[in-house]
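ok so heres the complex, two chains, lmk if somethin looks off
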Amino acid sequence: MNYELIGITVLWTFLYGYLIVASIDFGAGFFSYYTKQTKKDHLIHNIIQRYLSPVWEVTNVFLIFFIIGIVGFFPSTAYYYGSALLVPGSISIILLAIRGSYYAFATYGAKESKLYSFLYGATGLLIPASLSTVLTISEGGYVSTESGRVQLLYGELFGSPYSWGVVILAIVSVLFISASFLTYYASRAKDAQALKLLRKYALIWAFPAISMGVIVFFLLGQRNAMHFENMVDIWWAFGLSFVAFLWATYLIWKGKNYGTAFILVMIQYFTAFFGYGAAHLPYLLYPYLTIYDGFTNETMAISLIAAFIAGLLLLIPSLYLLMKLFLFDADYVEGKKPKAL
Amino acid sequence: MFVEYDPVLYSRILTALTLGFHVIFATLGVGVPLMIAIAEWMGIRRNDPHYTLMARRWARGFVVTVAVGVVTGTAIALQLSLLWPNFMQAAGHTIGLPMFMEAFAFFFEAIFLGIYLYTWDRFKSKLKHFLLIIPIVIGATASAFFITTVNSFMNAPQGFTIVDGILTDVSPLAAMFNPATPTKIAHVIVTCYLTSAFVLGAIAAFNLLKGKTHVYHKKALHLTMVTGVIFAIGTAVIGDLSGKYLHEYQPEKLAAAEWHFETESEAPLILGGILTEDNEVRFALEIPYALSILAGGSTDTVVVGLNDFPEEYLPPLWVHYMFDLMVFIGMYLAAVSTLFVFVNWKKNWNAFNRPLLWSVFAGGPLAMVAIQSGWLFAEVGRQPWILNGVMTVAEGATTSQHVDIMLVLFIILYTILGTTCVMVLRRMFKSNPVEHELEKRGLVHLNSHVSNQ
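and the predicted structre for the whole thing:
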């Protein structure tokens, strides 16, 4: 395995980590707002708060990692994506900023506020929509480099069915991932009422999530034939994803082994996400940039990988401690341990 | 009047806006954890629950500022690529390592902050909970360390060679540990500590000025001022070394800061003043020999003047005021904290008199002003370069349309965030004042005199 592949694998893993933890967070925000509107928030409020409060910052860091990491490993991405994404990127920043700070304001400072809760819910859907445009753009045809300037073709972006397909896929996936995790968390907390409602949400969003996956798969065929064919070549990855989905949904429907079900959901997205990514290679941006011509120098690559390994040695025990105290500590999850600031 | 759209100018303004807003929270983010750690440690050492409560209340306010720090930090991380794509392409090749490590340091800090906040009553041993703040202090300071190496690199780039416009022979460690690194890092970190001590001290002073009399506030003020003295002395020593660094590696920046036109030895230090059209300094306070001493440690050090640099490579000369403002406030903070500690040390003198309390209170906002003016000096003083001697800001900037609209959006965003942040913090501490919490925890009548140790 060469440095280019190691680099992109590390980054893709971070992005996958972000996909999972951020989906849980984004979906939780939406469910929290939605249940408030339908006066069911007393059922799931505690579950969501108890999980989110200690971990929300960690979520954001996955994204920062990816952004900083990709500039380190593939400096040319800063040039291409940075130039093209000024407007969508800035909108994502604003949404992330509103979400992060208003979550903290509501949790640590103020009393409950309708506005905060609305912002928290709305951004939960808008952020995945805006971030997913980056993956759309990477397929090529949305960016022009006329007269030496990289420009985003807005008409092409907003007029393409593929682009809207990805947006919807992102939103329904967020809701499905989040609901299946919160179902598991509620079952650990032995909170029957919350479990009932969240299980229902998980089952509602299961079908839209998988069908959008299939639809986007075929839309890609029209958009980028080369990428599509590469994906068909590794059809087994997507087959595995589909099996994991069926199994997870079956378990949730049967009302047992919610933990296994959530792991299966993670596998479903892992195989699909890495299958998509592997087939995308070597291109970072069709047809301008590949991992080979956009790569950093070898010394930098080695030192980034070394820093990455050292960092993991530091982070894994820390993350384990965090999870042990807040995710796997039955008394905390059940609300029997104090949670005072 | 129509101003012609210039993406470079708007990118500069937008970056200055984001960094100027972010640095308020970043400074507190680096400094306050140390103050919390000291307070919690005092609580354990002296078995004094007032200090423990102090740590707890500071941590509660801290987390709100961290939130804004995190989101604005995310903003600048993205904006660097969006507004300076050419610069980031070059930076990725050379200085990507510490940026990557900064993210790790922050990750580490974020994990333990989540744990620390929610485990106050969870462990039997108080020491166990104290141990959790240590990774936060380390993570926060390490973040400042790594990100400041990037800024040092922009001032004194090294660790690569350029052959036909292509970067080769890259040494990430040499890039990180460039000549600007030692003084810059030390200066940034110690002033974060100093500013945080003064912001927390200003809150204590404010409460005392409002007529609150509980010993809790006096302890808070005393603790912040004692640490303030130490950090202020550190700042002064490092400031002197920074002058020597500039003299050696960025003489044009030093000359611009000092309005020093003629190359000469026994150069005077110029404070304040105005500049006439033909570059004559008027109404300034001149300290003889002081610039030569600052630059080289002796009066016969020859300091290169502005006239010896090509004009197109000189920064705007208003940075002189930013430099003076920073230095003046630094001295003010040192004087006030020293005075407070001295008066408090004298047995029969009252350190909690109103003029002194007002002076401490003013120190909080002033310290923040010094952070802003210091960074303005550091960044504008490097103009026209983004990478000193290698790449100009104009070469580094985006060519995209719509940077002006983004600027407007971000002005609105930061206005709303800043206002709500202040409102939330006020409400948080107003609805739960110290006195109330002391009562709730049964700590009201605990030793009612200030200990002078």
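quick notes: Chain A has one domain: 3-333. thats all i got rn
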